[in-house]
Amino acid sequence: MLFPRSDISYTRDGAGFSYRVAGIVLHNGHVLLQNTERDSGYAFPGGSAAFGETNAETLAREFREELGAEIRVGALQWVEENFFRWEGVDFQQICLTYAVELAGEIPMEGRFKSRETRAGGNQVWFAWMPIERLRDKDITVYPHDAADLLTRLGQGVQHIVRR
User: What's the pLDDT tens digit per position in 42-82?
Assistant: First the structure.
């Protein structure tokens, strides 16, 4: 890396910005999702890009840190512009989501802990979620129309704006 590691994410004056990269991993009718102890909603695995990293480097680092797995990064699938409130801060987030293939071993069923804990002791969990469950009203998945988006994989980049 050309620069010291510094995430492209900040908060200032009650507002925040995040540049996130995520990966779609499919296996036997399931999709790999992550969530934390502070949020019952699920998201596609990934994290904040660091200054000087390519998107593929960010994904490779995040999967290595959190899952101990090597990956192959495929095509860009979704570009998301997200506006939300998190822990009292109004955020704007740009999230680029790619197709990902596992090249390393991880648990292939159920729910399991990340290898790392986020700041403040917030534990990250991973789960293989049946794709048909993404439409259930009792499960929150980001983006909210993930089930529909997954049916359009490989049909060009989808642009999503969430306010």
Answer: 999 999 999 999 999 999 999 999 999 999 999 999 999 99
Considering the four listed CATH numbers 3.30.420.270, 3.30.70.60, 3.90.79.10, 3.40.1000.20, the one that applies to the domain covering 9-162 is: 3.90.79.10
* Residue appearing with tokens 């502070």: 38
Query: By the 8 A CB rule, do 74 and 101 touch?
Result: yes
Nearest to 64 by CA among 27, 114, 129, 30: 114
Give per-residue pLDDT as tens, 94-142: 999 999 999 988 989 888 888 887 767 778 999 999 999 999 999 999 9
Nearest of 152, 117, 103 to residue 34 by alpha carbon: 117
- Report yes or no on whether pTM surpasses 0.90: yes
**Other C-beta atoms lying within 10 Å of the C-beta of residue 74:** 15
Place of tokens 């409130």: 85
Burial label, 22 (beta-carbon count in 10 A; 0-12, 13-18, 19+): buried
- Per the listing, tokens 């794709």 go with 131
CA angle 87, 88, 94 (to 5 degrees): 75
